[in-house]
Amino acid sequence: MEIASYEFSGAGMTRVYENEKWMVGIKNWKPANDITGIDCLERHNLTDELFVLIQGECTLVYANETDNGLEFGAVAMVPNKVYNIPATLWHNTITQSDTKMVLIEDPSTSMENSELHNLDENELIIVKGLVI
Known about the structure:
This protein is mainly beta. It has one domain (13-131): Sandwich (Jelly Rolls). The chain contains 1 helix and 10 strands. The chain has one helix at 121-131; strands spanning 13-18, 23-28, 40-44, 49-55, 58-66, 69-76, 82-85, 90-95, 100-105, 114-118. It has a 5-stranded antiparallel β-sheet, with no helix packed on it. It has a 3-stranded antiparallel β-sheet with strand order 6-5-8, covered by helices on one side. The chain has a two-stranded antiparallel ribbon with strand order 3-10. Strand 1 and strand 2 form a beta hairpin.
């Protein structure tokens, strides 16, 4: 038996380790997570998701559903802290080109139990204003 190690240096996210209980991924910058490319939020309806910022900068943007529509917020991530995105919370990451994060979630998390919300023009203005 030996110790295994995993890495990923490409754009976007890939699962680097998975078993029946949890999955670890590495998430790097990609154009869709840049402030100029952000266009949607996602939510995982059954599972939490954890992020750890390793290098660079990342703002976690999120939204809660209210009677008046979505209410937006943002958290500037600090390296080496664990951030929990609870199930059903709309969210996305806004990153810069040198960003690298670790993500941990249930291996059953997929688009079959998740949703996307395409941001309209007014929502994009709000989201971008939370980051800039």
